[in-house]
Design brief:
The complex is a heterotrimer. Helix content of chain A is 0%, strand content 53%. By secondary structure, chain A is mainly beta. Chain B is globular and about 50 Å long. The chains are: A mainly beta, B alpha+beta, C mainly alpha. Chains in contact: A-B, A-C, B-C. Chains A and B meet through strand 3, strand 4 and strand 5 of A and strand 4, strand 6 and strand 7 of B.
């Protein structure tokens, strides 16, 4: 199952993309209540969106972004555009989702 | 083919091969790497200076920051930034009293419509600053977001 | 003056632990109290809890509900719901209508066992009958995901909790009502203290939500916890907050409590899972 849920809608030539990503966005400051040790930082650092293979936005995140992070942005585009949203976190994990603009 | 032409052709071919090879070898990252230093800085002014190379901010009503007056919960504070300014290169969101003020940065493209939104964690009541880089200048809008803790909600 | 007399009547009726009034009469009094306290709130809006009575938190909540994190849980829940047990059966075989759009039928009084049956207990009973281990009601996880999915498929259907004409059913309802109005814990609060008498006031940084509509939107995705919380985990949380020792999730006490609060919410739409702070 993808970690990304995405909605991309076009209206009057503007495509609005909204997405939720399943991710703990751990800051690295929280402590394990039982052991007292810090839970290691684990957060998405970069999210890149392409439309028809053209990079449309590059997002840089820090650990202050909420858990199961949400993002929204817009670009000039059309219905049927092929969207590719990819994220990468500080531990080297990645995932991506391909979708079409409605 | 005379010697001159042959050399000329060889050089051309060599140049072509080098260029073609250069295109073949795809760099691992086509985009700028994640700016680790920016996200580590703990002081707001240092953070802004690090991102832009200066602290010359211009408060502008052309930048609209939507943020709650009182965050219902500091774990998920919805924020939205949009602007009517043109040629927007980037939008940055700073949270003055967070351990690291830079919360997120949005590097736009020529196809971008300058509007972004996300949800962030805020530990304390703080000024939230949205900074838009347009035509090389930095324009900002800010809002104080109150964060309260304590109650029966758990 | 009307509200003073009203509150007086409410206190008299509810502190009388022997069945003084019928459940129908209780329900009318209960609702009248909220209608009186929040004259601008439509009855149907109570399914939205505190957001039906506080405009500023409502705006933030609507922003989150535009694309809520629990959508990930609904997808997970759907996958889990459709996954067959080791013996080949699925959850669909345990529920009427294959388990789709049934949330509003729970809790109900099971006359064959003389106990209140809740949806989450039914999910675990289904697992037990099919040789699977029970799922935990705490800390999110698969139980909360499945419960969220089943709530989601039931959105829009209204609670119609029935109290059959038997002493055992009435006793279960009365036991739930009694717990609701009993002061517990070091802080000596009852559910009613916050959710009936002080709903709409400020309790430190919180505004207690009204007592009608609580069970329509569970499991709830709580921002602070960053995950789903089941109704009984929330009951336990509330009891912890008033420094009382909580009961175990799905114990008789909590099932009776769920019975009482759901009966009070009859006519309200299921709208779970819901985002909460």
């Amino acid at each position: 199952m993808s970690t990304i849920k995405l909605r991309a809608k076009e209206s009057k030539g503007v495509v609005t993309v909204k997405a939720i990503i399943k991710h703990p966005m751990e800051t690295g400051q929280r402590k394990n209540k039982k052991t007292g040790e810090k839970i290691p930082a684990h957060f998405i650092q970069q999210v890149i969106c392409k439309a028809n293979n053209d990079e449309v936005i590059t997002i840089n995140w820090g650990p202050a972004v909420s858990k199961n992070p949400y993002l929204t942005f817009a670009y000039l585009g059309s219905k049927g555009d092929a969207i590719d949203l990819t994220w990468e976190d500080n531990q080297g994990n990645k995932d991506s989702l391909q979708s079409e603009v409605k | 083919m005379n010697r001159r032409n042959f050399l000329k052709n060889s050089l051309m071919t060599a140049a072509t091969v080098t260029t073609f090879a250069g295109l073949m070898i795809k760099p691992k990252r086509l985009y700028a790497a994640w700016p680790k230093i920016s996200f580590d800085i703990t002081d707001l002014n240092d953070s802004i200076n690090n991102v832009y190379g200066h602290n010359d901010l211009n408060e502008s009503s052309e930048v609209m920051l939507k943020a709650p007056d009182i965050a219902e919960n500091g774990a998920i504070v919805p924020l939205n930034v949009k602007t009517k300014l043109k040629n927007v290169e980037s939008i940055m969101i700073f949270v003055e009293n967070n351990p690291q003020p830079l919360s997120s940065g949005y590097n736009l493209s020529s196809r971008s419509v300058p509007t972004v939104g996300t949800r962030i964690k805020m530990g304390n009541t703080s000024k939230v600053i949205a900074a838009v880089k347009s035509n090389g200048k930095i324009y900002t809008a800010s809002k104080e977001v109150k964060v309260t803790i304590g109650g029966c909600g758990g | 003056m009307k509200s003073c007399f009203h509150k007086f009547l409410l206190i008299i009726l509810f502190t009388n632990v022997t069945a003084f009034a019928s459940p129908e009469e209780d329900q009318k009094l209960f609702r009248d109290h909220f209608e009186n306290r929040f004259p601008n709130t439509e009855f149907s809006d109570y399914k939205n809890g505190v957001y039906s009575i506080d405009a500023s938190s409502r705006e933030q909540w609507e922003s989150i509900e535009d694309f809520p994190p629990y959508e990930l849980n609904i997808d997970q829940g759907e996958e889990l719901f459709n996954q067959p047990f080791k013996n080949g059966n699925t959850y669909a075989t345990c529920f009427e209508n294959s388990g789709i759009a049934v949330r509003q039928n729970y809790p109900y009084f099971d006359e064959s066992t003389n106990q209140v049956m809740t949806l989450e207990l039914a999910i675990n009973n289904c697992r037990k009958r099919n040789g699977e281990k029970p799922l935990s009601y705490y800390k999110g996880g698969p139980m909360a995901d499945i419960s969220a999915y089943m709530a989601y498929t039931s959105r829009g259907n209204k609670f119609d909790v029935k109290i059959p004409n038997s002493q055992e059913a009435l006793d279960a309802y009365e036991a739930g009502k009694k717990l609701y109005f009993t002061k517990v814990g070091q802080l000596n609060f009852s559910c009613a203290d916050c959710h009936v008498y002080q709903t709409g006031s400020k309790l430190r940084a919180d505004i207690p939500s009204p007592g009608i509509g609580h069970s329509t939107h569970f499991p709830a995705y709580r921002s602070g916890a960053g995950r789903l919380v089941t109704l009984h985990e929330r009951f336990a949380g509330c009891l912890n907050r008033v420094r009382a020792k909580p009961f175990k999730a799905q114990n008789e006490e909590y099932r009776n409590l769920e019975y009482f609060i759901s009966y009070m919410s009859n006519g309200l739409e299921i709208n779970g899972p819901g985002s909460r702070k």
